[in-house]
Structures are given as structure tokens and as C-alpha cells.
Amino acid sequence: VFQGLKRDNPTVLGKLVPVIGDILLPGLGLSQPDLQTLIENVTVVYHSAASVRFDEPLRKAIDINVLGTRRVLELCHKLKSIAAFVHVSTAYCFCNRDHVDEIVYPEKIPYQRVIDVSEWLEEKLQEKILGQVMGGRPTTYHYTKALAESLLVHEGGNVPIVILRPSIVTCSVKEPISGWVDNFNGPAGFVIATGKGVLRSMVIRPNSSADIYPVDMVANMMITSSWHIWKEPPMNAPFVINCTSGSFRRLTWLQIFQYSKPLVLKYPSSEIFRYPGGSYKTSHFWHSIACQLDHNLPAFIVDTLARICGQKPFLGDVYKRIHRAMGMLEFFVTHEWTFAVDNLRLLMAELEGSDRQTFDFDIRTIDWVPYLENYILGVRKYVLKEDPSTIPAARKKLNSCNGAKAKTKAKKKAETKATSWTAMCNSASEPAQRIYYVGLLSQLLLLAGAMRLLVKHSQTFNDLWWTLISNLLQLSVRISLALRSTRGS
């Protein structure tokens, strides 16, 4: 990540002085010598440490996101020459409102009371009252970030404070390198699941805004905002910035879906489960059906075959995690918000000359199509750890997977003798063919299920049903033998 920096300025990292600390400990866990060094020398503090887990238990989320912020603020009060404290929040901390201004809204339950209750109330009881306490927010993450903002308003004192609220933070545009991303958060996880052919359906509101902001632009805004309040200290209240793109360069979830679909085929993962496909849904009913048929059914088949082959089943657990993640993110891909961006426009206008290039955060310069292309390449390289040199081989594997069905049909048409089940299983020695036959088996079971529902009360078709099941079991055994043979070779 820092190769370019080391090449251009080899000595710059020597300016860094690391200190050991922990936001969960009193006094941040700082030693007395380190604390004294900070008191004497630090003028600007950037606070972005947080738990970003949406399903974090309330007590833990408060300890990290609220009390952790208080501990950092207490340090700021001790600094002799504090010029700016930049607190990174989230644009969705007030997602219970349709329009979000650049202000801190008061909470119905004071933050200190929530802190006190979280300390003595049992976790099971906390979970029961979460819905009432969080005021319409879907996650403890967003709620505790709002509480942290309230704490800064009431306990900030004379410390010049910026509250920066980024929307969905995505890969870098330029720095440290184009396309850099290092986690599964946000869209990255769904890019991976889609590219591997695991994710086949999700619920979205197609025309709602997909408000994303590149991570290096957010970092530049943090630096610029600290300069701004050093120059013009805020009066009596934090300087709040909604770091959002929708007012400048609007992107919808439908556009992300349309732009990304061909890109995951252009830059496929080296390891895929199925050929990437599927679609978005606007109906929970059709989405639930798609999940049963295109997620849970293949998972059942693959895990059954894994057990037959003496291996540990895994796909069912994968889909449980995917469905849990989709459930937590659904609120944000099916709702629309508008954000006031007056302070963001002010910062943009203040940058001049070379500073505008050095600390660029102008989202209006982004072309979303090449940006998303770099995003998918970045996820592949930095998250999946797949070198770009493997792309041609991955494409070949993907194309062979896509062409397996067509080739099989052409072969059947050219040959007069039908292909036997044994020959088909033997042909599964290649990974692409195995993927194809898993899909074929899914379709056969789907057909069998439909027949079962349609003719449930017919004895004749009941007999046909059990005959079909018998044939499918024989097919499963033959496929498992083929897979064992492949593993042995």
C-alpha cells in the first residue's frame, strides 16, 4: 500500500511516532510518558476508531462507539494546543429521518441514561427493548454513532470539533493506489458473493440513491475540515459535514447492478461456485422464493454430496451468513434520504490552486463506470488476494462453465448414441463441468418439487414421484463416485 510513498519520499514515515493505546481502557491505556508527549505536541486529533458491526450487542457498541469517543475527547481537553478534533461518524446515524441537516438532532432518551442502563441491564433484556430505545434505527451501530454525536455536543467544551458523516465508504480513487480496499464491508462483500455465483437474489429499491464516497476523498475531507476549523473555529457547536454524493453525482442501486454485472464476468474470481447470475427483486415474496430455490436448494445438494464424500458441509452456513447480512443491509438499499450539504460545498469552495489537487474530495469529478471497474479489480486483488495475472485463466474457466451446457447439447445432437449417466459423471472431472452438473441437479430437484405440489393427492403421480427420487439418488451416488475419483487422481 505504501510502496509509492516510500519510493517518492523514503524518509517521510520516520515522522511517525507510534504509541500503545486502547479506546476501551481508562485514559486510553496510555503510559504517563506517552500521555505527556501527546499533551505537549499534538494539535489535531482524528477519531475514526469504532465498531462497524451492525449486529454488535448494545453494551459493547456503547463501550466502543460512545465511551470510546468520550475517552478520546477527555484526552483532547488535556492537550495544550488543541486546534481540531475530527470525529468520523456516519451519514446514516439519523436514518430514522427522511432528510438530514448538518446538525446534531437531540435524542428522546439522553445519551447518559442509555449508558447507565447498558451497564446494569442484562443483555437479554437490552435486546428486548432495543426497538423502543433506538428510535426507528435498524442497527446498534447507527444508534450508538448518534449517541456519540450527542456526547460531543454536551461535553465538547472549548475543543474545536468537526463531525464528519461519510455515507458508504468505498475503494480509493487515487491514493494510496487506485482501487484499494481492504475489507468486506459495504458493497465489497456483495461483489464477492455475486462474482463467485453464490448470491443470486437480493431486495433493492432500484431507483433509490446508492450514496458512496471513495475512502481517499473522505481522508482528504478530514484533513481539509481540520484546517477549516483551525482557521474559523465553530461557535458553541460542532461543525457538521454530511459527506454524501447524492446531491452532486447521484448513483442508483439499479445503475450499480447494471454496471457491475458485466464487470464481474470481465474480471472473474479464480474460484467460483456457479456461473454468476441472478437478479434483484422489489418484492419480498419473490425474493423469498428465489432464496429457497436458488440459495437453499443448491446448498442442500452440495452439502449432501459433501457428506456422502466424507467432507464437511459448508454451503448452508455460507448462505446463513449471506442472508443475515442481506437482512441488515436491506433497510439501506430500500430507502431514500436527502442530505443537506452546505458545509460540504463551503469546504469545496475554500480549496484553491494546488490544494484542490492535493486534497481532492470533489465527487463531481468521478465517472462511476471506470470507478466501479477499479472497485471490482481492487476487491479481487486486495481482498481476495488474487493477482491480476490470473484473470485470463479465470476467464477461461468461467467461459468453459458457461459453455458446458451448450457443448453438451451440441455433442448430443452430433452423436447418434445418447450419453449415459456414467459418461456424464465421468465428464465431471473438470471443475467447470462439476459446476454445471450441480446446476443441472438443482433444476431436476426443482422440477420434482413442482410436480410434488401439483399432484399431491394423486396416487399415480405419487408413484412417479418416488421413481424420480430414486433416480436422483442414483445420480447423486454416481456424481459422488466421480468426485471421489477426481480427488484421488
UniProtKB/TrEMBL annotation:
The keyword Transcription regulation does not apply. It holds the Pfam family Sterile. Residues 295-386 form the Fatty acyl-CoA reductase C-terminal domain. One of its GO terms (biological process) is long-chain fatty-acyl-CoA metabolic process. Belongs to the fatty acyl-CoA reductase family. Catalyzes the reduction of fatty acyl-CoA to fatty alcohols. This is Fatty acyl-CoA reductase.
